[in-house]
Amino acid sequence: MGLEAGEVFVHRNIANLVPNTDLNVMSVINYAVRHLRVKHIVVCGHYQCGGVKAALSPSDLGLLNPWLRNIRDVYRLHERELDGIQDETARYKRLIELNVVESCRNIIKTAAVQQSFHERQFPVVHGWIFDMETGLLRDLEIDFEETLRDIKKIYNLAPA
C-alpha cells in the first residue's frame, strides 16, 4: 500500500458487519475518528463471504444467530430487489454488496463521524468489494454526503 506503520488502522468482523451494538467496532471507529483523525474509512467485503452465505441459510446456527440477524435484516430491507434476482449466485453477490452498503450507513450514523465531518469535512466512508476469483477490488461508490443527508432526518448527531 506504500504506507508507513500507523497510517492504516484495521478492524475485522465476520461478514464485515458494523452493527451499532458491537462496542468493539464502535470503539474502533470512535478512536480512529476522534483521536487519529482518519480521513477515510473503508468497509471492504468480499465475494464468497461465508458469513453472508450462512445468513442465507434458514436454520438455527446457535451463537451465530444474533450476529447473522444483521445480514438477514439487510435482506429484509432489500427483499424486493433480492427476490427479483433469479440467479442464486447473483442474488448472493448482491446481498454481499448490500451488506457492505448498510455497514457504511451504520458508520455514517455514528456521532463521531457526523461531528468530525461537520467540523473538518472528513472522514469519508467508502464501500469496496474484493473479488477473490479475479483479484479485483470494486468500489461500490458510496455517495457519503448524499447518504449523510438521507439519514439526518432520524440520525442527525452533528451539532446544529
UniProtKB/TrEMBL annotation:
- InterPro entries annotated for this entry? Carbonic_anhydrase, Carbonic_anhydrase_sf
Q: Name a GO CC annotation attached to this entry.
A: cytoplasm
Provide the binding site for Zn(2+): H46, C49
Names of required cofactors: Zn(2+)
Q: What reaction does this enzyme carry out catalytically?
A: hydrogencarbonate + H(+) = CO2 + H2O
Tell me which UniProt keywords the record has, alphabetically. Answer: Lyase, Metal-binding, Zinc
Q: Which GO terms describe its biological process?
A: cellular response to carbon dioxide; cellular response to oxidative stress
Gene3D superfamilies, per the entry: Carbonic anhydrase (3.40.1050.10)
Q: Report a single Gene Ontology molecular function.
A: carbonate dehydratase activity
According to its UniProt record, the EC number is: 4.2.1.1
Q: What class of enzyme is it?
A: lyase
Co-factor binding comment: Binds 1 zinc ion per subunit.
Q: What is known about what this protein does?
A: Reversible hydration of carbon dioxide.
Q: According to its UniProt record, which protein family does this protein belong to?
A: Belongs to the beta-class carbonic anhydrase family.
> What is the recorded name of this protein?
Carbonic anhydrase
Biological source species: Aspergillus homomorphus (strain CBS 101889)
